[in-house]
Amino acid sequence: MSSTRLPSVWERSRQMAREEIKAAALRLFIAQGFEETTITQIAEEAGVSQRTLFRYFGTKEELVCGDQDELGELFVRLAAAQPDDVSVWQVLRDGFVTVMTADHSLEQTLRISTLIFRTPALHASYTQKRQGWAVSLMPVIRERLLAEGCEASRVDHDARTAIAVAFACADAAVSTWVAARGEVDLVALYDQSFDLVRSAPRPRRP
């Protein structure tokens, strides 16, 4: 018999309430802008009190970027679960491909990404969340690099570099995807960014 515990009625109700509030907020943010939308409007749209809204979400930014913490945890689990013979670069690519649409359809991800990349306050929150991802990924990527034969004296630097490059490729891909209004393939854009980085000639030292 499986020992996996099913969510309680209270937990399911709480999750449904969170999703309904988030959906209401996104409708307003997309229709009239993030900065222009007030907490009062969101609460009224969701049919809850402001107090209830703040019990689920501490800030307006969390209504859009709150899922980033869970997505980061998913990314780390995916990276750790990959077979030993999968390269670090493939692990990072596969992680991004999965989390880009883990919680939403591609169309919904495009709407959310457009909102994030065009709203300074949201982009700042998004960037901060991604920094947390990088910290959590470090031990996993570090161990994989060591298994690939990376020298211990340089493994921390190489792990940080690999994560930074993968994140930069993902952000470049999403930025272009948003600018093209989703009319280009998101994963192909990531691969294009990564191929460019890999093929770049090493600069000459003075």
Short characterization:
This protein is mainly α. It has helices at residues 9-32, 39-46, 50-56, 60-65, 67-81, 88-99, 106-117, 120-147, 155-179, 186-199.
List the helices and strands and how they pair.
Elements: H1 9-32, H2 39-46, H3 50-56, H4 60-65, H5 67-81, H6 88-99, H7 106-117, H8 120-147, H9 155-179, H10 186-199
Helix pairs in contact: 1-2, 5-6, 5-8, 6-9, 7-9, 8-9, 9-10
Tell me which CATH architecture of the largest domain applies here. Orthogonal Bundle
Query: Helix segment count?
Result: 10
By CATH, the topology of the largest domain is Tetracycline Repressor, domain 2
What count of structural domains? 2
What does this structure look like?
The model has no long low-confidence stretch (mean pLDDT 90). Helix content is 73%, strand content 0%. The longest helix is centred in the middle third of the chain and has 28 residues. By secondary structure, it is mainly α. Helix 6 runs parallel beside helix 9 and helix 8 packs across helix 9. The protein folds into two domains: 50 residues, Homeodomain-like (Arc Repressor Mutant, subunit A), CATH 1.10.10.60; 136 residues, Tetracycline Repressor, domain 2, CATH 1.10.357.
Which key features would you list for this structure?
2 domains, Tetracycline Repressor, domain 2, mainly alpha, 206 residues, globular, 10 helices
